[in-house]
Amino acid sequence: MTRTAPLIAAALTIGLIAPAFAQSTPPAVSARQGQMNLMALNIGVIAGMARGTADYDADMAQIAANNLVTLAALDQSFTWPEGTDNFLIEGSRALPEIWTDPEGFAADYGDFAAAAEAIAAAAGGGLDALRGAIGPLGGSCGACHDDYREPN
Amino acid sequence: MTRTAPLIAAALTIGLIAPAFAQSTPPAVSARQGQMNLMALNIGVIAGMARGTADYDADMAQIAANNLVTLAALDQSFTWPEGTDNFLIEGSRALPEIWTDPEGFAADYGDFAAAAEAIAAAAGGGLDALRGAIGPLGGSCGACHDDYREPN
User: With contacts defined as CB-CB under 8 Å, which chain B residues touch A63?
Assistant: First the structure.
């Protein structure tokens, strides 16, 4: 037994070291990661058109933008329970700052909702309009990820 | 070389055998699985109250039910591209019937939307009202999974 073993045992007992390796992904974490995947899929449709890697299609752009507005309307009460940060949950990149700075996190989420509304208003109006509205959308993703997501 | 090897090589060439083992999960599959995880999380809130494993809370029940209505409003144009069934994509349980019977699949999805609306109308009105509306919700999940999802 090394000198650190009792310390590790004590830390485990009082919960300082989480047995992340032993638990499966909590439903809330799977759900919020799914939410991000849904956002990414729809943003990908719009971003592909903006970049020119896909042909502009007003109907498809509108559908994707509307989906982003719908996703932004999901209430987040159940998707971010305490105890599901990246330290406690293997496979999560959610930083503890989500829980220590809930107002900032909610504000960033609100910025995403506003950006989604803006792109929904522009997406069907032609490629130039779409391109003009995509900046704030990408910016809202990046701002939140910078502050509240563990870097890769 | 066995007699079947040329047949397998030919099948691979014309795409009859998909290299599912070699590819990562397509974004559309991650997104639709995420959608199901979001549904499950919110249904879990309601089901826990209905079963009595969680205390009834009108506000929480209403939030969960509203989220189901929101999720049902997501346009499904991008989440089920052809070529993403359980034979072609490792980790997907989506049966080919989704693509051979799109009307049936859409009808089942519509039943979920109707059940979500019904539970949203009832969820905040007390535990008895919630319990009275949960049957069609669970039924809509089961009906679609029976027909369009690979059994475990």
Answer: 75, 77-78
